[in-house]
Design a protein that fits this description.
about 425 residues, alpha/beta, Aspartate Aminotransferase, domain 2, Aspartate Aminotransferase, domain 1, seven-stranded mixed beta sheet, four-stranded mixed beta sheet, globular
Length: about 425
């Protein structure tokens, strides 16, 4: 097929040319005297992204799922009680892992399209006067439904209840994209991966552990081997790993961390929100469709799950987009399978890039019988982006002196209505 595939699933994300070039390296001895420089550069950069001074980063040759397991097995024992809410496929899968490992999970089932129920968490934690709950699990960004949850609010609930439980956060599709503050929010284990905000191929599981979490290791009785943190701590202290690291991905991670530093985390977070608002305008104002996220407070800035009209199969829209327009969209999972499609808007992304997803999804929907006004999605997104100030990461050059800002410049499309 002529042209390129446009990848708009919520992970893996597009890999920038800079990062691809950085990964094109000859293999080297991962026990060489110079190798520790690579390790030290990565660990310092990860602390910046996690926004931590006290946390210890770990990099495993795995996916984020491996770091789910590392977080649990290095801190908990069989039969320990954990509190977790289920509101999407990935929050469900983390719960499933807990149960398979022999943990006692207190599950709070929530409507899909909502997130962590803060008041319910607070009530449960206050009622647990014997402190039987040893850990609280939070999926910050549920990619299956396009829902973001308030991690800082969970920390407040723990503090209000004066509860000592560990706070575990899945930030796989949020780290480096959404606000995340490891130290300020008192997080004990943060789980991420390489294939989303870090703009890399899949293959690196990234974990950050607090001193409180690491202190739990001697009393933890869950079995572990590959994901044993003391093995990593011992080797990482000298700049090495207890087994063969994913060398090319690590060189790519160094370049990704450079790109993040150059743009600045605050600018990246602002860019993701700005771009996401344009997509949401396309969905709700242009196409007159609904998001899976039930309320604005649940809106994710990294992925939008678009609900389709009754009788329209999401699988058909996704297949049409792929086979006819070479556009990869995310599908619905589990409870929402066939009811929606997902547009990932995270990582290396700008307005024109996102227009490809909006236009391609619109054409696929029209082909599949969705009744909407052709061009309405791009018009709504474009109007939003043209009338709102773009974050600095999207500005190729400064505005000419005396020029009107995007926010104040007259908009002919709006003034003619």
């Amino acid at each position: 097929m002529a042209g390129r595939n446009f990848l708009f699933v919520p992970g893996p994300t597009n890999v920038p040319d800079r990062i691809q070039r950085a990964m094109m390296v000859s293999m080297e001895d991962h026990r060489s005297p110079r190798f520790p420089q690579l390790t030290q550069t990565i660990m310092a950069g990860l602390r910046e992204v996690f926004r931590t001074q006290s946390g210890t980063p770990f990099v495993f040759p795995s996916s984020g799922t491996g770091c789910w397991e590392a977080a649990l097995t290095n801190t908990l024992s069989p039969g320990d009680k954990v509190l977790a809410s289920r509101f999407g496929q990935f929050s469900h899968l983390w719960i499933d892992m807990c149960e398979r490992l022999g943990l006692d999970v207190q599950i709070v089932d929530c409507e899909w399209g909502t997130g962590v129920p803060l008041q319910q968490y607070q009530d449960i934690l206050k009622a647990d006067t014997q402190h039987q709950i040893k850990a609280v699990l939070v999926c910050q960004n549920e990619t299956a439904t396009g829902v973001a949850s308030d991690v800082a609010g969970v920390r407040e609930a723990l503090d209000e209840a004066v509860h000592p439980a560990l706070l575990f956060v899945d930030c796989v599709s949020s780290l480096g994209c959404l606000e995340f503050r490891f130290d300020d929010w008192g997080i004990d284990m943060a789980v991420s991966g390489s294939q989303k905000g870090f703009m890399l191929p899949a293959g690196l599981g990234i974990l950050c552990a607090s001193p409180k979490a690491l202190a739990m290791y001697p009393s933890s009785k869950l079995k572990r081997a590959y994901f044993d943190l003391p093995d990593m701590i011992q080797s990482n202290a000298t700049g090495y790993f207890p087994y063969t690291p994913a060398l090319t991905l690590m060189y790519g991670l160094v370049e990704a961390l450079k790109m993040i530093s150059e743009e600045g985390l605050d600018n990246i977070i602002a860019r993701h929100h700005y771009l996401a608002e344009g997509v949401r305008a396309a969905v709700t104002q242009g196409w007159q469709l609904k998001l899976c996220a039930k309320e604005q407070r649940w809106h994710s800035d990294t992925v939008s799950a678009v609900m389709l009209p009754e009788g329209i199969a999401g699988t058909e829209v996704i297949a049409r987009a792929y086979h006819r327009y070479n556009l990869s969209l995310g599908g619905g999972l589990s409870k929402v399978a066939g009811k929606l499609f997902r547009i990932g808007h995270l990582g290396d992304m700008n307005e024109i890039h996102l227009m490809a997803a909006i236009n391609g999804a619109e054409m696929a929907m029209l082909d599949c019988g969705v009744k909407l006004q052709p061009g309405s999605g791009a018009a709504a997104a474009g109007n939003y982006w043209r009338t709102h100030e773009a974050p600095s990461g999207l500005c190729a050059m400064p505005k000419p002196q005396g020029a009107q800002s995007d926010a104040t410049r007259p908009n002919p499309a709006l003034s003619s209505r």
